[in-house]
Design goal:
Elements: H1 3-8, E1 12-16, E2 28-31, H2 33-41, E3 45-47, H3 52-83
Antiparallel strand pairs: 1-2, 1-3
């Protein structure tokens, strides 16, 4: 697949039903749409739809990632202000 197609192909997640190239049954992975379609057709995988518990866990991880990014930005801004000779209070 050419690099331009790879960059624009969002991929499609699948849940494996049996072992395939290092993936075990139950593993979830994202592949280019054509590869995902082949895996489903050959019955190595099924299209992935998260369970309620998985969706909640995903949202929790996403929120933690957003919080960490916000803290990183705040620390960076404080460090840059200190470097310019300004004092900045950063509230948590």
């Amino acid at each position: 697949m050419p690099p331009s197609i790879i960059a624009t192909d969002p991929g499609s997640p699948v849940r494996f039903t049996k072992y395939w190239r290092g993936y075990r049954a139950g593993d979830v992975a994202r592949f280019p749409i054509a590869t995902s379609r082949e895996l489903v057709e050959k019955r190595f995988a099924t299209p992935y739809k998260p369970t309620k518990a998985e969706a909640e866990a995903d949202e929790g991880r996403a929120q933690a990632r957003r919080n960490a990014q916000a803290e990183t930005v705040a620390m960076h801004e404080a460090a840059m202000a200190a470097r310019r000779g300004q004092l900045a209070f950063v509230e948590k």
